[in-house]
């Protein structure tokens, strides 16, 4: 959906929302996850209430209200509703940013999803950690399960796993000691897959471990990859491969040269909103937009709300939701009138 500005030749603004949601475990929900039940206190329960039907609807409502008020913005707004974010965006935003139709939109700035904030403040995300999914493979001597077989794949794999997990502990300590402020500032690494073996009495010749690694944009990815090589090559017959690797992880710099950030912040200040700025701990479609050197902010106007995306009983209070529409009205008026640069 496009709302054409009075100066359509200027770089436009993209308001992005993904349309997919994650699955539910219905038995753990107090109300039907797709019923959108509203409780007495205004809490609306449903999958997607935070992630991110709310934002998609708020964009539309805010634009509708501005049009009703007779407002015209200088810049064109493009509301994009994209698939597959929850499974990596490979057939969604990742493809779209390379498409001619994306280039034709001439986007200068984008807003996309953020996360709820449990306090009165609102969180704005200016970058994300790069997701790397790595499979470590070990090969070793097979043999009969009743013998002391040497140099087995599983033993080697375990020693390498120890190295990965020691790094995990070190990063965890940085966060626990307060040296790193938020989850987005450290590298997380989790052993999420373990494969190997065909039968109890056969020592397997192969075994593998899968890691979900999330790397802050301040980390040198080339150096980090070298580190993975050092850990794995310490054992003969152990190698690693990328199942998924995100490169060129760009941040949107929040300084006085960033006119979009200034306009966004001015609108929030005028409403006396408290903003906190962070690196998004997981991955959203914003990473593909930033990869094209387009500044992007992750922002869901949800405060005083527990972070329940992907969780059971995801909810959003009606009052928070409605206020968010007003927040966008102010924000859109401000960013939509950023003068030509
Ligand atoms: C890495 S592609 C999958 C995307 C997913 N995004 C979120 C927000 O959960 C994630 O970070 O795991
Ligand atoms: Zn989302
Ligand atoms: Zn999600």
From TrEMBL:
Classification via Pfam families: M20_dimer, Peptidase_M20
Principal location listed in the UniProt entry: cytoplasm
Top-level taxonomic group: Eukaryota
GO biological process: amino acid metabolic process
EC code(s) of this entry: 3.5.1.14
Enzyme kind, highest EC tier: hydrolase
Residues bound to Zn(2+) 2: 51, 86, 310
Active site residues per record: 20, 85 (proton acceptor)
Keywords: Cytoplasm, Hydrolase, Metal-binding, Zinc
Binding site for Zn(2+) 1: 18, 51, 113
Gene Ontology, cellular component aspect: cytoplasm
Record-linked InterPro entries: Aminoacylase-1_M20A, ArgE/DapE_CS, Bact_exopeptidase_dim_dom, N-acyl_aa_amidohydrolase, Peptidase_M20, Peptidase_M20_dimer
Compartmental location: Cytoplasm
Coiled coil: none
Cofactor dependence: Zn(2+)
GO molecular function: aminoacylase activity; metal ion binding
PROSITE patterns attached to this UniProt entry: ARGE_DAPE_CPG2_1, ARGE_DAPE_CPG2_2
Cofactor note: Binds 2 Zn(2+) ions per subunit.
Peptidase M20 dimerisation domain span: 127-228
NCBIfam families recorded: Ac-peptdase-euk (TIGR01880)
Similarity-based family: Belongs to the peptidase M20A family.
Protein name: N-acyl-aliphatic-L-amino acid amidohydrolase
Native source species: Capsaspora owczarzaki (strain ATCC 30864)
Taxonomic placement: Eukaryota, Filasterea, Capsaspora
């Amino acid at each position: 959906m496009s709302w054409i500005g009075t100066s359509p030749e200027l770089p436009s603004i993209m308001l992005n929302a993904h349309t997919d949601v994650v699955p539910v475990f219905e038995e753990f929900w107090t109300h039907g996850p797709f019923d959108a039940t509203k409780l007495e206190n205004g809490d609306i329960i449903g999958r997607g209430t935070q992630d991110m039907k709310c934002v998609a609807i708020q964009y539309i409502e805010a634009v509708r209200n501005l049009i009703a008020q007779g407002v015209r913005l200088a810049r064109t707004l493009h509301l994009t509703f994209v698939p597959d974010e929850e499974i990596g965006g490979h057939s969604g935003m990742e493809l779209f940013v390379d498409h001619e139709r994306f280039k034709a939109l001439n986007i200068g700035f984008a807003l996309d999803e953020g996360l709820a904030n449990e306090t009165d403040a609102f969180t704005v995300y200016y970058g994300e950690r790069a997701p790397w999914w790595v499979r470590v493979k070990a090969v070793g001597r097979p043999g009969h399960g009743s013998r002391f077989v040497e140099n087995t794949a599983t033993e080697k794999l375990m020693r390498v796993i120890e190295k990965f997990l020691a790094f995990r502990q070190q990063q965890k300590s940085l966060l626990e000691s307060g040296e790193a402020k938020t989850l987005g500032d450290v590298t997380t690494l989790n052993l999420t897959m373990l494969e190997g073996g065909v039968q109890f009495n056969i020592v397997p010749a192969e075994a593998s471990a899968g890691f979900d690694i999330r790397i802050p944009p301040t980390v040198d990815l080339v150096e980090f990859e070298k580190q993975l090589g050092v850990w794995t090559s310490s054992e003969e017959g152990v190698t690693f491969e990328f199942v998924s690797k995100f490169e060129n992880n760009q941040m949107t710099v929040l300084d006085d040269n960033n006119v979009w950030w200034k306009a966004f912040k001015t609108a929030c200040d005028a409403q006396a909103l408290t903003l906190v700025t962070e690196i998004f701990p997981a991955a959203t479609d914003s990473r593909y937009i930033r990869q094209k050197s387009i500044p992007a902010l992750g922002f869901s106007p949800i405060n005083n709300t527990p972070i329940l995306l992907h969780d059971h009983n995801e909810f959003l209070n009606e009052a928070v939701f409605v206020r968010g529409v007003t927040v966008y009205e102010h924000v859109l008026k401000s960013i939509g009138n950023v003068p030509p640069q």
